[in-house]
Design brief:
Helix content is 25%, strand content 21%. The chain has helices spanning 10-19, 21-27, 35-44, 62-69, 81-89, 131-141, 180-185, and strands at 52-56, 73-78, 96-100, 117-123, 142-153, 190-197, 202-210. Strands 3-2-1-4-5-7-6 form a seven-stranded mixed β-sheet, with helices on both faces. The longest helix is centred in the middle third of the chain and has 11 residues, at 131-141.
Length: 243
Amino acid sequence: MITTTPRLTAADWDSWYTARWPALYTAGWPALITDKESEYFHRTVRPRPGMTAADLGCGNGQWTRQLAAWGTLVTGYDFSTEGLRQAAAAGLQDGLSYTRWDIDAEAIPAALLPGTLDLVTCRHALPFLDYARALTDVGRWLKPSGTFYALVRVTADQDNEGAATQNDSAQEPFHRGFTEAQIDELGIGWAHRTAYRLSAHNCGIVLRGYGDTALTPRHAAGETSRLLTPAATSPALVERRAR
């Protein structure tokens, strides 16, 4: 998988969070955390209090705070100073922290040790990363029973053969996503994979068992028939932008 699109810098994201995020947040974009996403996350991941988690590309911490509200001990990682400033301004609590890290360009933080995490998430950020390398690192950080969760934007195939480029060229740089073919490739090397559509443009992906073919067989792309039904599902955290 080769990235052919320009890499957005920390300054690009700082500008986006300063100039564009307030209006987009009010309009509900990027996708706010919905009760449907919360329900499917609980079905496939089954978060529980005390789980250790890392949220990659956390931005201003919207999803990171949701994980903390569900009782996970979570650190959000991002390289946007403005995004992290907004995250901290939204409130800190025990078990919730943020760390500045350029995931593609800087050394892995000492806290991310092999086999130590129950959960790694990456919501809307995976298409902006060197994702093949990132998923290899994630597989190392997770415990044998650990889970990776991603939410990605779905884009159209770029030609009749289904060949994929990382960015949908019809969209501006901050709207990157994956084609169906790329989403299917994300399960390579993992023993268990579940993918499901949350909307016409958003797909949830759950991976377990990196490099362990002894685990349960990989699910087909888009399969939802084996999803477990939770006894109760916590609603999504409702946030209001400060006026």
